[in-house]
Write a structure and sequence with these properties.
By secondary structure, this protein is α+β, with helices and mostly antiparallel strands. The protein contains 4 helices and 6 strands.
């Protein structure tokens, strides 16, 4: 299945993280939304994001080592939606792009595909405004520390 997704991450404490070649940045505690697309296998991409033992490849891999993925939202699509979602997110009050180029190094129109949202309560409302009301959160990840990715149920049908 092809599609786009939003990872909802919760960072419990302010920290400083090195994000690959982008550099080292301060991350305030709070909620982050990461927007991405998978036009080959959405299920495979989401499983990879949820795996705790993955190789550090994408910018989000560095953040997800410290932040907990608490929800995953998705929509089926043959086109990339992350740019539209990111730009829409940045038009809301209190929402910022904390790191220029995060997840969007190949994108000319977006400052970032990582968005800081002040509270988890705002996230659901915001995702619904992005027309993701039909996209169910597929995981409420309380089993983050498991080593077996089969424990993560990703059913997008």
């Amino acid at each position: 299945m092809k599609g786009s997704y939003a990872l909802v991450l919760q960072l419990s404490a302010t920290c400083e993280l090195t994000i690959g070649k982008l550099g080292t940045f301060p991350f305030p505690s709070g909620c982050y939304l990461y927007f991405g697309s998978a036009l080959n296998s959405l299920e495979g991409r989401l499983r990879r994001h949820l795996r705790p033992d993955k190789k550090l490849h994408w910018h989000i891999d560095y953040l997800s080592r410290s932040a907990k993925i608490v929800q995953v939202w998705w929509t089926q699509s043959n086109t990339r939606q992350e740019c539209v979602w990111s730009q829409s997110a940045l038009s809301h009050r209190g929402v910022i792009a904390p790191i220029r180029g995060f997840g969007s190094s190949d994108c000319r129109h977006c400052p970032s595909h990582l968005i800081y949202v002040p509270s988890l309560e705002q996230v659901g409302k915001f995702l619904q405004k992005l027309k993701l009301e039909s996209a169910d959160p597929v995981v409420d990840q309380n089993t983050r520390n498991t080593q077996n990715t089969d424990d993560f149920e990703i059913s997008l049908s």
